[in-house]
Write a structure and sequence with these properties.
Layout lengths: L1 H18 L4 E6 L4 E5 L5 E5 L2 E5 L4 E5 L3 E7 L11 E4 L2 E4 L7 E6 L4 E6 L6 E4 L6 E7 L2 E7 L1
Antiparallel strand pairs: 1-2, 1-6, 3-4, 4-5, 7-8, 8-11, 9-10, 9-12, 12-13
Length: 151
């Protein structure tokens, strides 16, 4: 019954996705099935263990990676890549590709703001961990959050 529900949901989303000119994730399985999921509702794709998980504002789908032949994005010109991952070298943290003027924060583990910064004209925020006490910190910039351990 659960499989039937997911099959129906996939078909419904596929027909909705093809009805307009939205960006879609196309997953082709080795068995020949093709699933089309609309990416217009805050999609999050994660790889967890042996599964590709696709979650949006309405549903979550899970595909065994071993069953996937290929996945791609239709209409990719609407996708804007944001690479807000930090680079850490010699105690210096650098975050690139932020929109100009984006606020970035260093939080203590209990949530207090330790430092506030703003990205420069090139979309870069850079700061040193050397002047912070040893411990774990949460860095937030744009919609990204990550933990750093200062040892």
């Amino acid at each position: 019954m659960k499989q039937l529900f997911f099959t129906f949901a996939f078909m419904l989303m596929a027909s909705m996705a093809n009805a307009d000119n939205t960006t879609n994730l196309v997953i082709r399985q080795k068995a020949g099935n093709e699933t089309i999921l609309s990416l217009d509702s805050n999609p999050v794709l994660t790889f967890e263990g042996e599964y590709l998980n696709v979650r949006n504002d309405y549903m979550t789908f899970s595909f065994p990676i071993a069953d996937i032949d290929q996945y791609s994005v239709s209409n990719p010109t609407d996708i804007k890549e944001m690479r807000t991952l930090p680079r850490i070298s010699n105690g210096q943290v650098t975050i690139n590709d932020l929109p100009n003027g984006t606020k970035a924060y260093v939080h203590s583990i209990d949530g207090k703001v330790i430092r506030e910064m703003e990205s420069d004209g090139m979309g870069i925020v850079s700061f040193s961990l050397r002047d912070l006490p040893k411990g774990t910190y949460i860095i937030s910039a744009a919609s990204t959050r990550f933990k750093i351990a200062n040892k």
